[in-house]
Amino acid sequence: MIRRAAISREAIVGLTLVGVYLAYTAVFWAYPFFWLAKLSVTQWRFFDDPVFVGARNLVRIVQDPQFLGSLWNVVRFLAFYLPLAFGGSLLVAFGLQQVGRGRAFVALCFLLSNVSSGVALSLVFLKIFSTTGPLNNTLYDAVGIRIPWTNHPTLAMLAIALVVAWKFVGYYGLIVYSGLLTVPKELYDAARLDHAGVWRRLVNITLPMLNPQLMMVLTFAILVSFGLFTEPFLITGGGPADSTVPPQMVIYETAFRRLQPSHAATMSIIISLASYLLVVLARRLFERKVVIA
Amino acid sequence: MIARRDLLRLGAAAALLAGCAPTKSERRDDRIRLWVAPNAAEESFWKIAVARWNAAGRGLPVSFTTIPTAGNSEDTVLSALVAGTEPDLSTNIFSGFAVQLATLGQVEDLAAMPGYADLIARRHMAAIMPGWTQNGRVPAMPIYSSPTLLWWRADILEANGLGAPPETYEQVYAFSDRYGAGRRARYGMQVIAGRAWQDRWFDFIPFYYAASGGRPYLDATRALYANAAGLQVATFMNRMFRQGWTALDFDAEEPLVSGLAAGAVRGPWDVERFANIYPETLARIAVGPMVAATPSSGPAATFSDSKGVVIFRSSRVKRQAFDFLSWVLGDEALNLLWLQQTGLSPARADLLENSRFAPYYRRSALGRAYAEHVASARPPALSEYTIDVQKIMSSQLIEPVMTGQRAPAAALRDAVAATDRMLEAQA
Fold it and tell me: Where, by residue number, does the polypeptide cross the bilayer (chain A) (predicted)?
């Protein structure tokens, strides 16, 4: 009787509800997380018992040219992707502002690319970018040249950035558009009274006011760049000369083709840390508090 | 009396306990469990073969299922091994993966099984088995052998003065020069299969086997293709690209259908694909050997995309499983059934001499062309570093030659040196 009184019915319901979440987290997050941590400091090849090796996996991974190359590929990808993501999302957002009727439909159309299958769109773009594809055939007929979109290290990375941008720019655009809706019109009216031109209003009002949304786009873009797999896997196979191999592909091949899950686990931890640090750095450098006094 | 709430609690607890049940399946010794490739043709063969075995009562009954995969068989087999849910036998295992499994101690050495020598003799596999043997051990037994050969559009060859598929580089050069002339983009042949590491099985490696008479390109410690044959292949590729007789890729379309390229490396699995999608093109296809500097006196060597069957070490019915395997692979009637159901040549060297298979090959010219090359086709190198070896081949040899960044000899040197360094580091 005393115990029943100590735990109220409300508490039992609450604990039950929380318990489901905690159990889920324990099974699908905590267990893999600790297993990953254990793998990273042990040598295990699927069938034997893990043997503690300390930092040997880490030392080996940081000397692995293919893994280091894949990290450098993230930087190269971002160099193409960020301008495309920011430029594209701003264009979408400003474009949506100009749409009168059917704005929701247009917004939905942009979202369609985001929810479409990465595999399907990679196959479509593979054909479009082919040396013998429609884009190159048109160019060849017009000026007699073909662009090796997927066979040149720099162009191949640009091609992948274009495909990924096509998928995400609409989504990013809607985020930026939501920010545009919150910018008070009075700010623009006041600027016009001060004879501020379009460019000045953009640089001094719109972009600063959109800082939270642009930071969100930047964060998403960084996360996309570290999570990239489908597009390079299907479009370039990581080539030419491993110039488009993303870290996820190296991790996959290391775990399931080279059968070295311990090395793959160490790589995944490094990738997680790198993406986290890059997001933190970006926020430190670019995040501003937007306050309308 | 049990209240409804108690029943619910009981149900929830039972569900939780069921979820906590051990995942490892109980090893059984009253039947042989078999996994087969997840495609309708192979499944239909195993359905008949297993039914015959079980009806004859020759040994332990066999139950089979397709490999439960949505994508890659290797991943599924690996997951099953980790979870302890693997069967006794699995088909659809390529030789490199079999070596990896053997290195990890997961599969039986089939050469040590009683009746192995008899099976090899009965199935005429003596010429085929060296490609599946490492240090005297056989981790997998090949079921079928799919040589890669060059498909040519016979109508295009004829229009350009060739009555038969080219057999030498010079013939390809001369044909490509004629066919590629003119404003419209057309190429003599597709030389490079793609950018992924596995594409090397369909370009450099078969060309190398043809040029070298089937010599291996790799042993346990070093790459072996820095020789005259390797240089001939690299030079051939280089010339095809420099002259514009082939394209960097043919991703946009099937080049043989439109005639964008008149020739391309294709395997026997493409026969069914073309029969379903491009039947008119298939009717115009002539199959030729992998080209080399000089024509081969017999069937030219080429690459064989073969799949085999393994017996897992965890099996409690290894001997019985091998008996079943021996019966299926050694039975000519079942080999013919396999051929009829799948169109893939059984891995046996007597396909064209054996009267049992003659009617099939009389009806299928394409099938006969592939059967001719079963004995001379070589599987991939037995290495657990296949992926790294072929990635180096791609990045150091194929891609620099494609783009003209390196001369063939220099690219060959780079690729071999990088492979040797990698193998040394792994050792």
Answer: 12-31, 74-93, 105-129, 155-181, 202-229, 264-282
Candidates B59, B75, B76; CA nearest to B67 is B76
Considering the domain architecture, whether residues B373 and B396 belong to the same structural domain is answered as no
Same domain, B292 and B323: no
Shortest alpha-carbon distance between residue A131 and chain B (Å):
6
Burial (CB count <10 Å: 0-12, 13-18, 19+), residue A92: buried
CB distance A130–B252 less than 8 Å?
A: yes
pLDDT tens digits for A214-235?
999 999 999 999 999 999 999 9
Judge contact between A85 and A282, C-beta under 8 A. no
Which domains does chain A show, CATH number per domain?
2-40 (no CATH), 66-286 (1.10.3720.10)
pTM, full prediction: 0.82
List the CATH number of the domain containing B158: 3.40.190.10
Domain containing B160 equals 149-303+385-426
Q: Structure tokens of B194?
A: 């793609």
Taking only Cα atoms into account, the Rg of chain B, rounded to an integer number of angstroms, comes to 24
pLDDT digits (tens, 9 = 90+) for B239-292: 999 999 999 999 888 999 999 999 999 998 898 889 999 999 999 999 999 999
- Checking phi first, is residue B124 left (phi over 0); if not, alpha (psi -120 to 50) or beta? left
- B223 lies in some domain: yes
Task: Give A61: exposed, middle or buried? Use CB within 10 Å, 0-12, 13-18, 19+.
Answer: buried
- Facing residues of B258 across strands? none
Task: Find which of A132, A138, A139, A234 to mutate to test the B interface (most B CBs within 10 Å of its CB).
Answer: A132
